[in-house]
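Can anyone check this?
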Amino acid sequence: MNVIFLVASAVLLASAPAAADDATGEGGFSMQALGKGCKISEDLKHNPSVLLTELQRKLAILDEHRQLQDLLEATTNCTTGFQEAKEALAKILLQDERQLLNDYQAVAEAVLKAASAGAYWAGGMDEFVATTKFLTTGDDGPSEVICLAKERGGAKTATGLKHTDAMDGTPVSGCKPRLPTTTSKKPAEILQDSTLSAATDVSKIYTLVATQAKCPLTKVGSGNYHKASSGITATGFALGSITMTAQNSNAAPTSQSLGLKAKTNGVYDGKENTALADALSLARSAQQALSGIKLKLSETLTDDSFDNNKNEQTIIQAMYPTKNAAADFPQGLPAEAKPRYDN
């Protein structure tokens, strides 16, 4: 039998060469190993509240935009000078407003997709852990059924998290089947590299079977699961993040991982075409979209804004209304235009 965890979005592939104590290889799943996936689940369940808080914070930019509009209108009504500057600011505000509306539309879509994909995979992972816990009839003893073992991967099953035991304070506490409605977490605390790296380092998730402490989810043998050419030869858990495939003999798994790829181009990604891969990718996209929302006029009014804005055609056209910004200033505003810009 071959156990492969494709906890997909940052893919962990590693080998576990140890043979089972019993040739039937019907041990449970290591709570220590699954806990690394549960930390990802916990983050994904907090992410909707984190994204909502960030979106609300970004929406406050509209208030800043309206205040600038009111200030510009008051300046126009009370003064007769600085006409070029006022026209430039009015055009920038209009351009900002259009861009903000486009950005909010894109961000709302990205946030909804990230929240739904993350909660969807987390629910699948939580349900799998809950199932292994439900099937664990005792916390110790060789005659008990143990599917959620307290031992590390590769160790012999001896104790389990009993179905009546609390998950609080255990490695799998992140898989408690509840979706938080609020959170104190910040964006930088969600899906940190340390969390994904820890999952990538997992190379053994399966415990060795004791004489009687077998798990029905990993049953092998003629007429049962996971034996080639007899019974079910492949199963999947946690929305495909965990897959088990039969070998030609009733052997312990020879390859075990949480299914994340090594860090590539600065990010961890999951196994292709899996729900976790979608969740992680969409979470990144939502954060990137949120970080892109800003009020351009705030940058225009900073002390070093000339270098930042010398290629902005809206500003150039407002400063030189009789010229063609693109044709007459292909390299942007020249240095000698800075005094005019500052005024």
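Reply from J.R.: I decoded it. The CA atoms of residues 306 and 341 lie 7 Å apart.
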